[in-house]
Amino acid sequence: MIFSCSVDDGHPADMRLAQYLARHGVNATFYLPINNVEGWPVLQGAQMRELAQGFEIGSHTHDHCFLNRLDDQQARFQIQQGKRALEQILGRGVTGFCYPGGKYRPVHLQMVRAAGFHYARTTRNLHLDPGPGRFELATSCQFYAHGRAVYLRNFLRGGHWMRRAPLLLDGLRRRQWQGRLHAMLDQALARGGVFHLWLHSIDIEQMAAWDALDGFLRHVAGAVSPAQRWTNAQLAAHYFSD
Ligand SMILES: [Zn+2]
């Protein structure tokens, strides 16, 4: 089984999260906007560069705008400018993109490709496979206290039902959200494939779930060999080479 981890939004609590990941030797990709129109604080340039020393950095548009709410010109600007600004801050290329809010239309896949990104990630969940395409990488689950109803709703909306049913069923069997995530990881370990965790550090902060996260990462580190802990750039290159 391959394990990957995505962290979205570039909240300053990402620096604390990075310490937890590093402690367990778990790889991750951080998707950073330059600003956040929703008003959340974002990492400073120096912090972004520090993160980039240990982790893959991807773009999350310039201002964390949901692309489906923008016209084509605004969407193109957000995609291109987010990449340019981040590359300027980091002094290196950025090849990964993540759609804010998981919202996009088919035209945005083309825009992301045309901007020079190699892959893009969505918020589709319950996948144990890398996703339907290079510009639509999927996830397995979010590190969040979702209720069962949320998983059911996501499942019904997300399609690919045969592929996604095993994780759903395993998740629904557990009453407690942390237990659900551990059960999903065990399911992935038993079946093989890709387990892609995603989270927001601000959620961990607000749920006071740092210990729960620490326990989950310990579970990962104990069960997944270091060679199988990949960044999303590695995932995309391996499964969608063209
Ligand atoms: Zn986001």
Automatic annotation (TrEMBL):
Q: Which cell locations does it reside in?
A: Secreted
Keyword flag DNA-binding: no
Cellular component GO terms, alphabetical: extracellular region
Keyword list (alphabetical) reads: Signal
Q: Which Gene3D superfamilies match?
A: Glycoside hydrolase/deacetylase
The alphabetized list of GO BP terms reads: carbohydrate metabolic process
A Gene Ontology molecular function term for this protein is: hydrolase activity, acting on carbon-nitrogen (but not peptide) bonds
Q: What is its main location?
A: secreted
| Occurrences of domain NodB homology (ranges) | 1-242
Which CDD domains is this protein grouped with? CE4_GLA_like_6s
InterPro entries, A to Z: Glyco_hydro/deAcase_b/a-brl (IPR011330), NODB_dom (IPR002509), Polysacch_Deacetylase (IPR051398)
Q: Under which name does UniProt file this protein?
A: Polysaccharide deacetylase family protein
Lineage, uppermost ranks: Bacteria, Pseudomonadati, Pseudomonadota, Betaproteobacteria, Burkholderiales
